[in-house]
Predict the 3D structure of the following.
Amino acid sequence: MSSAVELERDIDRTDVPYVVRGAVKIGLITAIAVLLYSLVSRFTNGVVESALKVFIIAAGTWLVTFLPGQWTRARTIEGIAGAAGIGLAGTVVYLLIDVTLLQNIGTYTNRWRAIGGGSNWWYHPVWWMVGTFLPWMGAFMIANQQATAIGLLAERSSTRLPVTRPQSFTSTWAMRSAWRCSSA
């Protein structure tokens, strides 16, 4: 008999159905942010336009950066990779919405077509790279904060690398002498 209650609360969530659901959510959030930005560009101007655009970009960037790491409960490399997977698959979802809906309803001006030399396809690799990098970096930051909170990271470390438990006296001696040399 299985329990409906999750026994381990702090594990990384990276099973494929969970990552796909997260990707659909992130893709929809991105599409909504792009559509809102387009609407603000068309129907407002001046200070109001600038303020709304800054808010949309800041909120959208924050959501795309940190939500995948929160959803995967990034604590280890597994959770960080899961968040990057959500970001990558989320860009695919967004690009499907972009190609089928946003480009066809006239969301973009001809400026983007002119930048791409008459093609709207030039920016897709940029979305893939940024859409994967931001969630990866956000999950890395979340995992780093969790490791710091539970004492897995050295307090004085400038690189913030995890401190491993020594396996023997010689590794303890090596770690201490390396610490003395680097902090001097």
